[in-house]
């Protein structure tokens, strides 16, 4: 039977301690024991079902982790206080001084800054490559390489990673393939394509209401146990622990993700087709003009579409800023970073979410000043939205 991630979420059954249809929230930072020996055993990791301290784990966090592991098809998952709180411990758990990472060159600016500027202090080096060229990726691998790192759909250029091809390279060279799947939850299932570890910023589509910062690491039980180890686990010792109240909130929103992703994708495809027909330089994986359109089609779970992210290039930062300000004035969305909200969000990545990447490297990867990144919202009347956006562009002589 085909892997069906939404079914895996729906099939989970939780009851609250008083019979509630939602699991009860564990609003405690520490937990009591009936015997001192059980406390000792829990510290040693030998007491299943016992909780010690909320930085280790809580029932609420484990419920959410279980649901996200079910969605991604991994053995288990560990939730964190932010997307970066998921990315950084994975890299630090897998790499030490002298080790090497091969990463996509087009990734979220915070991840880029961590790999480019921070990890070298710890003796960890990174080579950034065009992830769409497997021969270039393989040429960058050294005897010290431990990780291949990519985003399923890259931020902000929307390049698509050949996860199956990368997984074969990782296996051949005994590496871990780490995939950030934030832009394409449900649409792409990296584990089924051979990825070892899947990361999300839950802040974005999965939570969907722009009220929470959170992350998750999905992987094997052995790897998640390593991350939680009290002696040398990166999640445990770096302390990016998710709050139980937030975990309960994200879990409730996760249950509607399949409906929301279908609408984000439907609206994204509609606008991308219209913008391209109008002559705008438009990038969207659902367009046949996208260089990796067929690759995305070969990997995707079709019912969830090509996602809610698209870009247009209006030629200059000045024009981009004018258009975004006018669209916000006309209530077509918000000039804001992040993504996955019910309203459309737009930003110029070169001066915001990718500003950590030096200008010359932005140019080299094709990130232009006039690029606008759209996170398309859940608009019920997307034809009306398009007509109003088109009017804004005509007013500014972009069209």
UniProtKB/TrEMBL annotation:
Q: Does the keyword Amino-acid biosynthesis apply?
A: no
Question: In this entry, which stretches build a coiled coil?
Answer: none
Q: Which Pfam families does this one have?
A: Cys_Met_Meta_PP
Give the UniProt entry's GO cellular component terms. cytoplasm
Single GO biological process annotation from the record: transsulfuration
| MF annotations from Gene Ontology | carbon-sulfur lyase activity; pyridoxal phosphate binding
Note the superkingdom of the native organism: Bacteria
Return the InterPro entries for the record: Cys/Met-Metab_PyrdxlP-dep_enz, PyrdxlP-dep_Trfase, PyrdxlP-dep_Trfase_major, PyrdxlP-dep_Trfase_small
Instruction: Write the signal peptide boundaries.
Output: none
Q: Which residues are annotated with the PTM N6-(pyridoxal phosphate)lysine? A: 204
Q: Alphabetically list the UniProt keywords.
A: Pyridoxal phosphate
Question: What cofactors are annotated for this protein?
Answer: pyridoxal 5'-phosphate
Instruction: Read off the SUPFAM superfamilies from this record.
Output: PLP-dependent transferases
Family from the record: Belongs to the trans-sulfuration enzymes family.
Q: What is this protein called?
A: Cystathionine beta-lyase
Q: Which organism is it from?
A: Aquaticitalea lipolytica
Query: In the record, what lineage is assigned to the organism producing the protein?
Result: Bacteria, Pseudomonadati, Bacteroidota, Flavobacteriia, Flavobacteriales
């Amino acid at each position: 039977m085909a892997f069906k991630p939404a079914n895996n979420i729906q099939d989970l059954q939780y009851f609250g301690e008083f019979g509630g249809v939602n699991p009860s929230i564990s609003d405690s930072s520490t937990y009591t024991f009936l015997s001192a020996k059980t406390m000792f055993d829990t510290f040693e990791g030998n007491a299943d079902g016992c909780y010690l301290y909320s930085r280790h784990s809580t029932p609420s966090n484990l419920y959410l982790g279980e649901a996200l592991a079910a969605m991604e098809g991994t053995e288990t998952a560990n939730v964190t206080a932010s997307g970066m709180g998921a990315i950084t411990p994975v890299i630090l758990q897998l790499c030490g001084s002298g080790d090497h990472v091969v990463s996509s060159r087009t990734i979220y600016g915070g991840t880029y800054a961590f790999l480019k500027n921070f990890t070298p202090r710890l003796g960890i080096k990174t080579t950034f490559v065009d992830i769409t060229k497997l021969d270039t990726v393989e040429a960058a691998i050294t005897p010290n390489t431990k990780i291949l790192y990519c985003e399923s759909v890259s931020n902000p250029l929307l390049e698509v990673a050949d996860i199956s091809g990368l997984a074969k390279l990782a296996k051949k060279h005994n590496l871990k393939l780490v995939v950030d799947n934030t832009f394409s939850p449900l649409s792409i299932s990296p584990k089924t394509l051979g990825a070892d570890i899947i990361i999300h910023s839950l802040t974005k589509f999965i939570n969907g209401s722009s009220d929470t910062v959170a992350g998750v690491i999905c992987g094997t039980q052995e790897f998640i146990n390593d991350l939680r180890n009290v002696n040398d686990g990166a999640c445990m010792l770096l302390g990016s622990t998710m709050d139980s109240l937030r975990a309960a909130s994200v879990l409730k929103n996760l249950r509607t993700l399949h409906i929301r992703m279908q609408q984000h994708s439907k609206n994204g495809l509609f606008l991308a087709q219209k913008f391209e027909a109008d002559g705008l330089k438009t990038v969207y994986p659902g367009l046949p003009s996208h260089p990796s359109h067929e690759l995305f089609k070969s990997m995707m779970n079709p019912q969830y579409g090509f996602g809610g992210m698209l870009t247009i290039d209006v030629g200059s930062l000045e024009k981009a800023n004018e258009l975004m300000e006018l669209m916000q004035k006309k209530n077509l969305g918000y000039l804001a970073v992040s993504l996955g909200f019910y309203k459309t969000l737009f930003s110029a990545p070169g001066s915001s979410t990718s500003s950590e990447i030096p200008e010359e490297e932005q140019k080299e990867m094709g990130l232009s000043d006039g690029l606008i990144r759209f996170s398309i919202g859940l608009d019920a009347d997307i034809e009306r939205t398009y007509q109003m956006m088109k009017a804004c562009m005509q007013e500014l002589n972009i069209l």
